[in-house]
Amino acid sequence: MQLVIDGICKRYENKGRETVALDGIDLVVKKEEFVAIVGPSGCGKSTLLNIIAGLTSPTSGEVYFERSEDEINLPNISVVFQEAGLMPWRTVRENINLGLEKMNISEEEKRNRIETYIKMVGLEGFEDAYPHQLSGGMKQRVGIARALTTKPDLLLMDEPLSALDAQTRIVMQEELLNIWNQEKHRTIYITHNIEEAVYLADKIIVLSRRPGRIKSVIQIDLPKNSRKEHQSEILNYRETIWNLIKDDAQQAIKEDIDG
Ligand code: ADP
Ligand code: MG
Q1: Residue to mutate, 8, 11, 12, ligand 1, most ligand atoms under 8 Å from C-beta
Q2: 211-226 pLDDT, tens per residue?
Q3: What single DSSP character describes residue 137?
Q4: Of 7, 17, 158, 206, whose CA is between 20 and 30 Å from 114?
């Protein structure tokens, strides 16, 4: 079953002013593939992710799963945003359970999954804590566990670590890579941090400045279970990708200033 993103265009209309956010995005994401999307601010990354999630409709084009005849179950999609969006009156365990409430699985299976993912994101001992008792990184871990418990066919992440301090961010990058090595979720991961993209992804999609088009697709040929040992290659990839983005990024900042 592969995810197909076919000719996605998006035009926003606001008070008579038109913004073309995306122009002709084509992309296929296979099972177990981790794709990162990078590009200058305002190039349409979040718009694309929301369209794939089914939260925004495209102006034209479509997103679908190409399924074989024996794959009858509807694909299930989880989304993680920059803010975890936890319910303050629910404990960690209850927040993680949110994703499972509507699923047709036994109570025992639900409990097992919650235990598994609490362990996987390193929140053991905090099961009964409330969100206000947690640090930013821990809240985001709850959000990630909640997204994973449904065993999604597609995991969508929009800048999931961007609100965290630099050190927590590095720790969480490692955790995300470990989780992927265990579970191998098909993932589309948006980040403005190029190094993070290279550290985590199999493939990086570089978008151009608005209207977002695919400027380049870069395969990261480094083993996923020992990325940390390839620092110099990671920096080389970062350099290559930054050279592709930098003019667009400068231009995007200028347009922001000029209005
Ligand atoms: P990114 O996530 O890459 O920073 P976005 O997808 O958030 O980019 O936005 C792409 C462009 O579309 C921007 O110019 C933004 O201002 C515009 N845009 C996003 N959402 C809306 C909206 N709801 N209405 C009008 N314009 C929007
Ligand atoms: Mg965004």
Answers
A1: 12
A2: 999 999 999 999 999 9
A3: H
A4: 158
